[in-house]
Design a protein that fits this description.
510 residues; alpha+beta; Beta-Lactamase; Helix Hairpins; Heat Shock Protein 90; five-stranded antiparallel β-sheet; 16 helices; elongated
Length: 510
């Protein structure tokens, strides 16, 4: 069945990318609205111009090499630097597709550009970029109908765009999914296959609900029925952030833009989907860093306020001991015990203040290639005599070819000692600690497992100042995580009350 022109233009202008076509002399013969918004020139101004002169393009290698690769393989991808109409410098991820005529001879180039300038500064400008992107997408969606009418010029252009459109759908980095009025998938492009894990053959003809998380999956049929009945749009015409589901059951966040497209009486809706899992992770990391920075600042203030009184108390108790030692009659055992308790408490407060200072200051790291087996041996030797008194056995399981890692030996040893001590304290009646080292293509894993009481399910062990130990401060694991993250690693744990706990440190390979 022949696709009506309106569908071509609708889909072409729904993409987030700028799209242009150039002839073999590099003159622009087509210019979509995305290009107009990205670069500032109208279609009328851009048509006929030499593309690379218009953009003042900076190539990663000579243009004749790029064209040679394009002629050989039919496509080329890379990053280019362009100038917009107002002189701004932008970096784009560019994909060129060689177009051929009916005889198979090259007759032009389809160029798809995505502005990645902001992505280069994603961590610093994350919130600002997200707001600007959402605003631009909302504006673009709201003006689609008017723009489509203006861009239809002739039947010839529409027919050529049909070919470009098909190339666009199956080469764009965003998922394109189209469904009929009953909610069954009728189009599923390559990006959708990559994002969701289904092949087109597996999902076409099935309900689109299979790609959704709850409650959207259960309610979607009613959404369609209500819209078909009332024409009242809720999701259509706007950009929303929702949760989707991959083939393996994993839930992940997406940006979703839905439009109604009149292709025939049955195929009604198309969706453009962008996986924003990485962006969500960056946001979570940013929030966590800000929270820890605030905690560090507070801890520094507390440590500073405690330091002077503690010094005074320490000097006072020393003077008191000296006075008592000069008394003609030695003090009774109750006085001696009281003085010792005061000294112990002052010492504990000094340790706490030291931990506050550690969590607040920026540590310096001395990274050196290190053999993990020797480092773990040191940790075990340090703790073995003490653990023998507590009826705690400590063992290690390391492969015969132990991996080398680049770490700050003292900092990692500090982290391991902290985890081993925590494991021993979780076994008040004694038990067993096992340290296991394994290596995969993803990294080096250190597992520290105890047979203790476990961590309650409603507690996050890494929450600052939260502890289940009678005299704990809730700072130790925060410091351990700081050390691991500073090494580019990760730390996690699994635990069941009454069945013990395993802490896992993941370090990059070297």
């Amino acid at each position: 069945m022949k696709i009506e022109p309106k569908k071509d233009v609708d889909l072409l202008n729904l993409t987030h990318d700028s799209i242009l076509a150039r002839d073999l002399d590099d003159r622009i013969v087509s210019w979509n609205h995305g290009a107009e918004e990205a670069y500032g020139w109208t279609e009328k101004e851009a048509l006929g111009k030499v593309a690379d002169e218009l953009f003042q393009t900076q190539f990663p290698k000579p243009l004749h090499d790029i064209k040679a690769e394009l002629l050989l393989s039919g496509r080329w991808e890379g990053e280019l630097v362009h100038r917009t109409r107002d002189g701004a410098r932008i970096v784009v991820a560019s994909r060129w597709v060689l177009k051929k005529d009916q005889e198979g001879n090259p007759d032009g180039i389809l160029e798809i550009n995505r502005d990645i300038t902001e992505r280069k500064r994603a961590e610093e400008e994350l919130v600002k970029t997200q707001q600007e992107l959402e605003k631009r997408v909302e504006q673009r969606t709201a003006s689609l109908a008017a723009e489509v009418t203006q861009r239809i010029q002739s039947e010839e252009i529409l027919q050529r765009r049909e070919s470009w459109l098909r190339s666009l759908i199956f080469t764009t980095q965003d998922a394109v999914v189209s469904i009929d009025r009953w909610g069954c998938v009728v189009l599923f492009n390559a990006a959708a296959e990559r994002i969701f894990g289904y092949t087109a053959e597996e999902i076409v003809g099935h309900k689109v609900n299979e790609l959704m998380a709850e409650p959207y999956a259960s309610e979607h049929d009613e959404y369609i029925a209500r819209y078909e009945r009332t024409s009242e749009a809720h999701a259509i015409g706007s950009v929303r952030t929702v949760t989707a589901k991959r083939k393996n059951g994993e839930l992940f966040p997406i940006e979703l833009s839905v439009t109604e497209i009149e292709v025939d009486k049955d195929v009604h809706y198309a969706a453009f989907i962008r996986d924003i899992s990485e962006k969500a992770k960056l946001q979570e990391q940013l929030v966590e860093r800000e929270r820890l920075a605030t905690i560090g600042t507070t801890a520094a203030k507390i440590g500073h306020e405690l330091a002077n009184p503690l010094n005074g108390m320490s000097l006072t108790i020393q003077l008191l001991e000296q006075r008592l030692s000069r008394q003609p009659n030695p003090p009774d055992s109750q006085v001696t015990a009281t003085v010792q308790r005061l000294k112990n408490e002052i010492s504990r407060l000094n340790q706490l203040a030291g931990q506050f200072r550690t969590i607040s200051r920026r540590e310096r790291y001395n990274f050196q290639p290190t053999e993990l087996a020797g480092l773990i041996d040191d940790v075990i030797k340090i703790q073995t005599p003490h653990f023998a008194q507590l009826n705690v056995q400590i063992e290690q399981c390391i492969s015969t070819d132990p991996p080398m890692v680049t770490v700050d030996r003292d900092k990692i040893k500090q982290a391991l000692l902290n985890l081993v001590k925590n494991a021993a304290e979780a076994m008040p009646g004694g038990g067993k600690i096992n340290i296991e080292v394994s290596t995969t293509h993803e990294g080096v894993f250190i597992d520290i497992t105890d047979t203790g009481t476990g961590i309650p399910l409603d507690i996050d062990a890494f929450e600052p100042f939260l502890t289940t130990k009678k005299e704990g401060t809730g700072i130790g694991l925060v410091i351990v995580r700081q050390v691991v993250v500073a090494h580019g690693g990760k730390i996690s744990y699994r635990s069941r009350p009454g069945e013990g706990t395993t802490f896992r440190i993941e370090l990059p390979k070297k």
